[in-house]
Amino acid sequence: MKGVTLLIVVLCFHLNFVNGDSQVLESNPGAVANEMCKKYTKDIKKNNICPVPLDTSIIRGNVAGKGEFAHMVQLAYIKNNETKYLCSGFIISKNYVLTSTQCVSGEGADQPEFVRAGVTDEKDVTNEQIRSIHTILALLYIALIRVKEDFNFNQFVTPVCLYTSNENPAGPGIHTGWRPTDIGEDKQTNMIQLFLNFDSNENCNNTLVPTEKGVLPEAIVKNKIVCAGGKTTDGCQVDSGSALQIDRKDSNEEPCMYYAVGVSSFESRACGKKELPAAFIRISYYIKWIENNVWPPANKRIRFF
Fold this sequence. Notes:
This protein has helices at residues 31-46, 218-221, 287-294, and strands at 14-17, 72-79, 82-91, 96-100, 114-117, 129-138, 142-147, 161-162, 173-177, 192-198, 225-229, 243-249, 255-263, 278-282. The chain is mainly β and 305 residues long. The strands form two sheets. A six-stranded antiparallel barrel has the order 2-3-4-7-6-5. Strand 12 and strand 13 form a beta hairpin. InterPro entries: CLIP_Serine_Protease, Peptidase_S1_PA, Peptidase_S1_PA_chymotrypsin, Trypsin_dom.
């Protein structure tokens, strides 16, 4: 039922689906996320654990450098006693990861078993942190994963700030994640980075795949998406749950953190067509729902036994 929020608290790992957008459109959205961003930035700089600065002078193609995107994580799925990393996500607090609902629910979808942070190249797991999953909260397009044990923040594992404005950023975007297993003969082990330009909301209409009835997803109607693309990039090069972000600079114009602007969450006409922008779910639309669950007011906190 629309407008009704179903919240179930159990004593073990579960998937909690929230119906409707009643939690999304509350007053003063983004204030808590912005304050937490300042806190994380201050703490990270104080402890001298800023992620490795993005160095565009180094020519690596689409490969991300070690420690450049320390907020990125991989979601692990176990099939036939084999562990596969099939989706991405990104750390937004000491114990929460933001990802796509595609990665945790849906027809034929498996739930991830654990989260792996601190890895840029799958062949180098020196700095990895494995975290078991406590709870999953999911809306139609985005999901929150709460881990059982807090992440240990260091130069290779840090949170990302959340971009709370409903306007597209002025600067270029960076799309990061891992290559899906069904692309190419060999699985690329390195994290991918694609530099994209933000596109107008109007052009997003052309990149979304209509439903069977020829209707565009309601995401475009409610301004839930943000589009970005490049002349030589294909949105299908990166897995679901991957992040669209921009560089964040503090008052001294020193980069230390990133702003997560969007999350890759559904099929797009941009798949295989480099001339079309890719569509991402706009994080700012869901910012209040995220705040209420990740940083709830003291009188609204849910007790997880």
